[in-house]
Amino acid sequence: MKEECLQECYGVLCSCLGVPPKSFTFEYVDDKKKYHAKYNVTPKEFYEKYLGEDLDDYVGIINGPTADKPFHKMYTVKYLGNVVDGNPVSYLNLPINEFKKAILDQLKDGNIVWFGCDAGKDINRDTGLWDDGQFDYAGTFDIHLDMTKAEMLDARHSAMNHAMVFTGVNLVKGKPTRWKIENSWGDTVANAGYYICTDTWFDKYVFEAVVHKKYLTAKQQKALKTEPIVLEPWDPFGSLAD
Question: Is the pLDDT of residue 56 over 70?
Fold first, then answer.
């Protein structure tokens, strides 16, 4: 039934949008204002020529400090994945200091970092700031609102709901104070589409990242080879697949 339904969906999409192209024309203007056009390029050829990265060298890491997820273990989520015969999606759970170091090391080498976070907490879209200290809810209402990251995950108060990329970080004596983010909400909000988050916001609301495995320690790389623990589909770390 699922295959029949997918065939019907594919037919409707092709009728409305056309059959997905097997090749395309790639046109661009280089930094010297010179026009280029490459004809009959297949997606695989485009990937090999213009990207050239071996995506198998990149791994997903998470910071999930809940009691049911010991650190330095691999995890996956039941039913996660939407590519037929694709590689299974899995994550290595790391303490926040190790999680952050891998991200920092990749940025220091001049490479951006994809990450998943809770983008709905403590955000000001006009200023482009994510900061857990910019709104004083507890002081305003004289109530206790403090929750640890683990408590927020267990209570479903917070979870990944958006993905962006880190493009830079501000360091003071080697310690990060704020992170530069490129978002996908257009260039008419924040600072031409770029945002800043504080390091304390990072600690609370950044849950996942993708890094090159060369930035992992020998112990962490060894853990990558272990069998993933399968989490239930409603686990917070399955939220980006909702």
Answer: yes
